[in-house]
Amino acid sequence: MGTHAQRIEALETATHENQTGVQAIIDQLAAVQLVVNKIAQDQATKNEDRRSDEGERSVNGRTRQPPPDDFDERDHQPFFGAKLARLEFPTFAGDDPTVWFSRVEQFFEFQAILEV
What we know:
By secondary structure, this protein is mainly α. It folds into two domains: 1-55; 57-116, no CATH class. The protein has two helices and two strands. A two-stranded antiparallel ribbon has the order 1-2. It is elongated, with a radius of gyration of 27 Å.
């Protein structure tokens, strides 16, 4: 080990190198964030263009009305499109209608069918 002055000098040098490394990481993250934002904007533009071209949207062969103008799809669906699960429409077994109604609501929610 060296003197206190040498150890302090070594610590200051290491601290400066760490700060430089952290700043480089922050700069890289900022660049990645810009790219991700650009991709998200491009995807949103493509979705808007597709919706305006189609007029109505179709999910699993079923046509539905486009969402209202103030509907923000980013709040209701994941960023990356997920494949819709294949679900059978629940049949009423004659037991509790509230359970059946809840399953029907889940069916429409999972299939991304909006209320009109």
